[in-house]
Every structure is written in C-alpha cells, then in structure tokens.
Amino acid sequence: MNRKILVLLLGLMLFLILPSLAFAQVQVRVRIIEASNAGPSIDPALRDVHDQLGSLFNFSSYRLLRDVNLNLAGNRPVEVPVHAGRSMEVTLVGEYGKMVELRIKITREGLPVLNTQVRLSSGRTILIGGPRHGGGVLIFALSAKF
Amino acid sequence: MKDSCSSVSELLEKYHDQEVTKQERSLVEDHLSECSACRVLATEMKELGSLLKAPVEEAAGKEDFYWVWQKVQREIQERPRLTWWESLRSRLGVSPLFRKKVWVPALTAAMLILSLIVVPALMRENTSPTKLSTVEYVESPDYNVMIYEEEKGNVTVIWLFDGPDQEAPTS
Amino acid sequence: MSYDEAELISRCQQGDQDALKEIFDRYQIKVYRIAYGVVRHREDALDIVQEVFIKLYRSIRNFKGKSNFYTYLYRMAMNTAIDHTRKREKIPPVSLDGEDAFQPAEDPEKGADRILLKKELEGELKAAMEKLPSDQKAVILLREVEGLSYQEIAEVTECSIGTVMSRLHYARKKLQEYLKDYVKPRD
C-alpha cells in the first residue's frame, strides 16, 4: 500500500514537472556577422538576409563568422564562443503563450558587455550589434523557432 | 656481431613497444650500447613514432568539441531510439518501480490531475498582446544602447555605442 | 571498467543523454586522435567523432561488458574512420593555402619556410598512410598514437597478438620507406 502511495505521489510530481519538460527544446539560430565598410562584398552565406541588413544598416560589407543552431532547454545556459575573447551565453528563461523569453549575455575577456532579456515570437529575429571587431563591428543575429 | 644483430633485431620492435621481458630488455640494451647500426634502427623507429604522433596530438590539442556535441545531441534527439515509456523510465531513474502494475495507476493519476488543471488553462484565451517581440531589459556597463523595432522586417535591433561620437549605423 | 563507468554505460543503454555526454567528454579526444590519425583532415575527423558517438548511442545496448568499454569504442572509432576513407572517391591533397599558412610568424621568412615544410610533411604522412592497408594502418595508429599494448590492439582489431606484431612490422617497414627523407636519426 505504501508503495502505491509513493507511486501516486511520483505521478503527481510527474504532472508538476511535465510543463517544464514540455517547455524545453526551443531552437535558436545564432549567426555572428562582421559588418564593415571594407569594400562592397556580401558573404554568400548571408544572401538570405542581405536585403534586411541593407535596409537597416549603412555597412557595405558583411561576412559570416559563425552560424550555429542551439537547442535550448529551460534554464540551461548555452555558451557560444565568439572571436577575439568574446563569448555569448543564451538561456531560455520562459515560454509565454506564443513567445519565448531569452536571456542573452555577451562578455569579453570575462567582463560583461551586454546583458539583455527579450521575448520573441517564432521566426522573429533580434540583432545585437556594435562591438568593434577588426575594421568593423560585430552583429549577432538570433532567431527562435518553436 | 652479425649473429647478435640478427637475434636482437627481431626484438627491437618489441623493445620499442615496451613489450619485452626483463631478460629480453637486458639483452637488447647491452647490444645497443655496442652496435651503432642497431642504434640507428632503434632511433629511426622512435622518429617514425614521433612523426606519426606529433601532428595528431597537435591537432587534438587545438580542438573544441562543443559543436560536435551540439550536433550529436541534435541528431539523437531528432531520431529518438527509445520507446516513450523507456525514455520516461530513464528520466525518472526509478526503474524498479516501473512495472506495469505500478506505473499504470501512477500514470492514470497524473493524467487525471493534468486534465483537471492544465486543459482548462490551455483553453483560456491568450490575453497577452500580440506583440512580436519585447525587450524586457538591457544593461551594458560600457556602452550606450539604442533599441529599434521594425515590424515589416520582423526584426528588433539592439545597438551598442561606444559613446556620443560613434554614429548609429542605421540607414 | 570502473563501477562509475559501468553505471554510466548502463544509464546510456537506457537512453540517458547526460550519461552519453559524460562518455563523450571522457573519450572525445581519444576518438578524435584515432579519426585524425586515419584521415589526417580536421573536418573529416570531427565528422567521424560525431558519427561515432551517434552510433554509440544507438548501438550501446549491444555492449554486454565482455570486453573493456574503451576497446569497444576504439573499434567503433577505427572502423568508422576507415569506412570514411573508403567512401571518399578522391582525397584532396593538403593545400598550402589552408588557414595555417596565414598565421603570423615571428620571423616572416623563416616562418614561411617552416610552415611550408610542415605542410609538406603532413602531405607526405597522409599519402604514406593512405598507401597502407587498413589493418596495418589500424595497428600502427593504435600503437604509436594511442600507446595501446599488443593485447589491447588485438582486442580492438579482433585478431591475435602474433598478427598484431606482424602487421606492425610491415606497417613500419613501409612507412619508413615512404618517409625515409623525414625519418632522420640524430646520432
């Protein structure tokens, strides 16, 4: 009898953790782009976003440095190493209806550069840019799919 | 000398591979101290080993396997191997309890509770605004920050400025 | 096999991906070394590592614990790497325009020569290894790169110790012939 009660309690716990299990597995695409005015060139890997970048920014050249897909589970930070001692950490912190909330931290040599928390709908892109890199700047493009 | 060379040369590889007995080692080392030709062979074997090993060690030392793991994880998640109940069992790690006569009532209880509470929650209309993105907060110790949202392009921009002299790069 | 490893394997057999990650962390470098030793190409070696751990996850239930786990994994790694080389119709030669060629050197003239020589040697090594039959390639790598004993090599390659020794002997003979310009005794 005690065993059956224990199992029923386990079942109840299962129900309580089910939402967080279901809450996992949001895919976030991270593209790290170097934007500069060093000549007119667009990395072929960025053709799909060239128009978008062109409509937003004045740079003449865009080069893709890294393109990764992250599978995020609730509250488990994933670190993305970036060039020149920088690092980006992305954490899925919540799901709200048709939006997800991401915490994004960018550091350089271990020191904080940016800490932000954003809510995005599926397919929406967030661009974080500005840190200098080489002769240009870095742009981090994140978009979530769920 | 020729005879001892031929008998030792058979042992040289075993010696190089550290597979000799104490007696064999003694025999080889005594011979090597006297025979330059065999010493050359032994050294060549050692050089060949280094030649094979060094680039591999160097390559391995440079690698960061983070991305490899990401791909492995994605692949095994996209094509799961286990049945759902096996997967559940392993997650909870209480395999002795998961015999049919035990988990069936447990699961039934969980489903009942689920249907009483979660389903009505799901049925509720989503009252949150249909905004495509929200920046909850931004902090940067060293930069000024500009936030720009473009509805048409489905994009939000967070731009970091060094200071007032760095112009916004926006069109 | 330690109890700790036995427990990890058991959990992995039940589909625990955290256990697989633990195994991955422990063995990633060893598997990479075998892969790189065979293919001598960074990206291919990384692909092989990925393939090995996916295969491991899918087949680990077949591991009954009769042999050491690492010999099971090494066998899988070696077979996957060798299969990989067989699948490729043509293996491109090492390019002197690879990223290593653009690393800044302390003395630009000396540095360039050193880089070229290194690239040449890597090319020669790769070509020499390709000429070896796969069974000889396997034993020479397990011995010289991984430092396995004859017994361990025999377990991985599923042959006798005598066969291991024979294959090692022929592999060394061939490689010394192919690479005689680079294997210079320093007496």
Provide an overview of this structure.
The complex is a heterotrimer of chains A (146), B (171) and C (187). Chain A is α+β, with helices and mostly antiparallel strands. Chain A has one domain (24-145). Chain A contains two helices and nine strands. In chain A, the strands form two sheets. Chain A has a five-stranded mixed sheet, with no helix packed on it. A four-stranded antiparallel sheet of chain A has the order 4-5-6-7, with no helix packed on it. Chain A is elongated and about 75 Å long. The termini of chain A are far apart. Chain B is of the alpha+beta class and 171 residues long. In chain B, strand 2 (144-150) and strand 3 (155-161) form a beta hairpin. Chain B starts with a helix and ends in a 10-residue tail after the last strand. Chain C is mainly α and 187 residues long. Helices cover 71% and strands 0% of the residues of chain C. Classes of the chains: A alpha+beta (146), B alpha+beta (171), C mainly alpha (187). Chains A and B meet through helix 1, helix 2, strand 3, strand 7 and strand 8 of A and helix 4, helix 6, strand 1, strand 2 and strand 3 of B. Strand 8 (125-133) of chain A pairs parallel with strand 3 of chain B, so a sheet runs across the interface.
Describe how the helices and strands are arranged.
The complex is a heterotrimer of chains A (146), B (171) and C (187).
Chain A: H1 2-22, E1 26-36, E2 41-42, H2 47-56, E3 61-72, E4 78-81, E5 86-96, E6 99-108, E7 111-121, E8 125-133, E9 136-145
Parallel strand pairs in A: 2-3
Antiparallel strand pairs in A: 1-3, 1-9, 4-5, 5-6, 6-7, 8-9
Chain B: H1 2-16, H2 22-34, H3 36-62, H4 66-78, H5 84-92, H6 100-123, E1 133-139, E2 144-150, E3 155-161
Antiparallel strand pairs in B: 2-3
Chain C: H1 3-13, H2 17-39, H3 42-59, H4 69-87, H5 108-131, H6 134-144, H7 150-157, H8 161-178
Helix pairs in contact in C: 1-2, 2-3, 2-4, 3-4, 4-7, 6-8, 7-8
